[in-house]
Amino acid sequence: MARTPRRGTLVVPDDKPLAAVLVILRHRISGFNAETTTGRDGSFRFFHVPFNPYELHIDTQGFAAVHKSVNVRNTIPANLEVKLDLPAVSESVSVQLQFMVLNAFDVQGLYDILSTVGGTHVIPPRRFVDQVQLAF
After folding, report:
1. Which domain holds residue 12?
2. Which residues are 83's β-sheet partners?
């Protein structure tokens, strides 16, 4: 069975190398599992890799995990460049509204609602209160 070295380079989104990152090459059916760590220049190398399809796994803090298929079919050395992506960010916002039905003559209730908005104290101008009273 022919075996060949496989090498690659690990870079971040701005194409700078990333050192000291664990890189794993796996073949689940055969149980082949090889681990290496990237050098200062982001390079990694696996030795004595039999011909097979593999999964390359890279999981490092601050970047999205990489699970990439790698097919080893011949002894020709090939350099695999892996570019890490920033993790996906998702955020959700929940907004709840409360509605209060006021009696048309309940000026004090309207004043109470207007005077406490979002935890801050709001004092409506006196002429606004007078106009509300006149409108009803």
Report:
1. 3-83
2. 11
